[in-house]
Amino acid sequence: xxxxxxxxxxxxxxxxxxxxxxxxxxxxxxxxxNEVVIKGLARYSIENAIVKEEIxxxxxxxxxxxxxxxxxxxxxxxxxxxxxxxxxxxxxINKKQQIPDSTLLxxxxxxxxxxxxxxxLLDFLYNLVPNxxxxxxxxxxxxxxxxxxxxxxxxMPKPQAEQLILSCFYYDIGKLNLPYEILWKAGKLTxxxxxxxxxxxxxxxxxxxQTTLDERIKNAVIMHHExxxxxxxxxxxxxxxxxxYARYIAIIxxxxxxxxxxxxxxxxxxxxxxxxFERNMKDYDTxxxxxxxxxxxxxxIGTTVQLSDDSVWEVVIIHPANKSRPILxxxxxxxxxxxxxxxxxxxxxx
Length: 350
Prior knowledge:
Helix content is 48%, strand content 10%. The chain is α+β, with helices and mostly antiparallel strands. The strands form 3 sheets. A 5-stranded antiparallel sheet has the order 8-7-6-5-9, covered by helices on one side. The two termini are 22 Å apart. The model has no long low-confidence stretch (mean pLDDT 91).
């Protein structure tokens, strides 16, 4: 809320506090201003009034996020840095101009300056509307941001954290040499199309093989689609034969892919993504994944979700062993444990 002078009041504003005159309520809180009310305030020589701002009118958690000045700055800097990052990568691929590590880390640090903690980044990523024409670049930039948050959560030493962040800027570079209409096709890929897409780790590795990039970055590019049980690609590697950074990026890549909206679906909520990880635990390094899942789950406490029956609830408790099926509370103070209602699913974060 903010205080404005009588001359700044305009019809449509909403009072944030009662207007008093000689200890009597002249106009109550939540009064919608019109010309009559504004003239009435002037008649009683009221000099200032407290009015609601956009964020005060937000009814849900994510509405408040979208009205938040920090989120607006995040979105503004995201657009600016995405343009810079795209130009750098195009020059790298087309003109063989290697990018100084410090340049990419400066992009990360500029973006990271707009949020204070990891749960805020998750909110910002969920509410960010991506440019449909820049999805591969957006995917890598967002992955780099999430990598920094993950590194903070597990207190990864700074040199290793920076290498993980840098790996995220490069790991999908091979996709930049594939047809856009196949990469971001709305429907199911044909067998031939999927075979082509699965070549992007090898294509990416060929682009960076002769550079002076750290070997861990190169390993992340070639191995990020390998899976712990050997079902990944391109080489069906298993377990600890997969580079540590690639194992982290497998988690990051999955989260960002599911958290990003597409023309054919909305972004999945963090709790929906946790459900995916719970169902596919064998694909990932659980020693890395489980601590991150706990932090993601804890960040959802206090958020608002919509269920498949259109009911709206607040997340109040995350189950330690089943983080995607929390205990919920509604506006009537009714409590529901989603574990006891398998027929209901979380469909949206509000």
